[in-house]
Design brief:
about 280 residues, alpha+beta, 2 domains, three-stranded antiparallel β-sheet, 3 helices, DUF2589, DUF2589 domain-containing protein
Length: about 280
């Protein structure tokens, strides 16, 4: 009797075939979570549950480099504002050989020189003098000013101090958070049932005639034979093919909120301390 494909498929244990791979996926996710927990405990903390630190040494600049500053006129102080100025007078700074004269502009208010605005401090080896031109009008008095001189300053090298910083190791490493993103189970069943039936027949007829002649009389003998054979054969052939394909895709999951807080605490635990004198 030929097999019934529907009956055969209904007899399959789909619970085991589908539930088995699903349980394997869940178990894989569980193992990944345990591996993450073990990584955090074994890598980030010692046997006393204290954070493991990585130590680095580096030079820290405690005083910046200061370039050399040539002697120059820092500002101009007006000691006598004068009178009778109708416009800004010329301001002249003295300069010796190899020196660069400073530049400035006078500001006049109500006929008086109230201040000198310095536009270029110049370059000097000693303090220069400054002259304010006399007013062009009759009866005016000439203003008088003096310079505030800034002496030359040599360059000052930067100063460094050797520092040591301790960083929690866990904040420097990528923490594995593997998540099973997708699991696809494809099950294929193929059942081919073939019935065969054959029938054959065989008919055989044979005859024999024997004649005897005698004079004046004679005789004749006839032998006839007949046979018939019929053969019937039937059968069935069932071919079964089962296949299962399981596709699993995993990805790096986002960091849990608790882990983010833990890393924030560890970042706040970074320590930077001096290990040497200022150089």
């Amino acid at each position: 009797m030929a097999a019934n494909p529907g009956t055969e498929l209904s007899s399959l244990n789909f619970g085991n075939m589908i539930g088995g791979p699903l349980c394997a996926v869940i178990e894989a996710q569980t193992q990944a979570a345990r591996a993450t927990a073990d990584f955090i405990k074994t890598v980030g903390f010692d046997k006393d549950n204290k954070p493991v630190y990585v130590e680095f040494k580096y030079p820290k600049e405690v005083a910046p480099y200061q370039p050399a500053v040539e002697a120059h006129v820092a500002s101009v102080s007006v000691s006598n504002q004068g009178t009778g100025y109708e416009s800004a007078p010329a301001v002249t700074f003295s300069a010796g050989s190899g020196e660069t004269a400073a530049q400035g502009q006078a500001v006049v208010e109500n006929g008086k020189v109230v201040r000198i605005e310095l536009t270029d401090g110049g370059s000097y080896s000693s303090a220069p003098s400054v002259t304010i031109a006399a007013p062009t009008g009759v009866g005016g008095t000439q203003a008088v000013a003096s310079v505030v001189f800034a002496a030359r300053k040599d360059a000052v090298d930067a100063k460094f101090q050797d520092m040591k910083i301790e960083v929690p190791l866990l904040t420097m490493l990528p923490i594995p958070f593997i998540r099973v993103e997708e699991a696809t189970i494809d099950f294929n069943a193929k059942i081919n049932s073939i019935e065969t039936q054959s029938q054959s027949s065989d008919l055989a007829i044979g005859g024999n005639l024997e004649v005897k002649q005698r004079w004046p009389g004679g005789s004749a003998k006839l032998n006839v034979s007949c046979s018939y054979k019929k053969t019937t054969a039937s059968g069935s052939n069932v071919e079964r093919t089962y296949s299962m394909h399981i596709f699993v895709r995993a990805s790096q999951d986002e960091m849990p909120a608790g882990m983010e807080k833990l890393l924030g605490v560890l970042e706040g635990a970074m320590r930077s301390t001096p290990v040497g004198a200022v150089k």
